Amino acid sequence: MKHWERLKLQQFTTGSALSPFDAALVARGLKTLPLRVDKICSNALAVAQFLAKHPKVHRVSYPGLESHPTHEAAKKYMKNWSGMIGFDVGTAANAIKVAETVRLIVHAVSLGGTESLMEHPLSMSHGSELLREETEPMVPPGLLRLRQRWSGKRRGSYRRSGEGAVTYLTVVKAVQCSGCSSHRSKALKTTCLVVVSNKAGTEQNDI
């Protein structure tokens, strides 16, 4: 039983073994991996720059930002900046609200796929380890983790900056909404996230 529990934990941590077909798909996908990684990183940089200027975001952790403490080391040792962004919105309640309200970003825990994914580590993937009564949380309660996708085109609900990097649904200006197409059928006021372009300053709330 002891060994079975260890095996279950190992499978949960690393995931299931690939089938032959999945392994063949991975081998095929490796041929275009550099192109996809470049796109992921350029998109993530645009999102991180947007978040860094947002008044409701307390801190952004992304090595591509000059304000990041390891930016110079990242320039020296990394070929690109990564597609993973951490940002702090102050409290756990704020973080959960953002994660549960997003519509184009999937509220889930994963590093694979082509979707942009957002999670609140304290209440999701690492909650049992990070939130203990006898100790302080190891990560800020308001921290959100965003994995940026490589392609931004989805039913026209996105914005692009002058460099062509996608900045759709990055976070977040919450407004009281009573009439956008997403909530019109509910006939009640609810919170709707508004995408703010980091270039033109325009808004799009029908997402």
Automatic annotation (TrEMBL):
Q: Which UniProt keywords apply?
A: Lyase, Pyridoxal phosphate
* This protein's record includes keyword Magnesium: no
* Cofactor annotation: pyridoxal 5'-phosphate
Please give the biological process terms from Gene Ontology that the record holds: transsulfuration
Among the Pfam families in the record, one is: Cys_Met_Meta_PP
Q: Name one GO cellular component term.
A: cytoplasm
Q: Which residues form the signal peptide?
A: none
The family database entries (InterPro entries) matched by this protein are listed as: Cys/Met-Metab_PyrdxlP-dep_enz, PyrdxlP-dep_Trfase, PyrdxlP-dep_Trfase_small
Question: What are this entry's molecular-function GO terms?
Answer: carbon-sulfur lyase activity; pyridoxal phosphate binding
- Xref: PANTHER family: CYSTATHIONINE GAMMA-LYASE, TRANS-SULFURATION ENZYME FAMILY MEMBER
What the record says about family reads: Belongs to the trans-sulfuration enzymes family.
List the protein's name.
Cystathionine beta-lyase domain protein
Species this protein is from: Ancylostoma caninum (Dog hookworm)
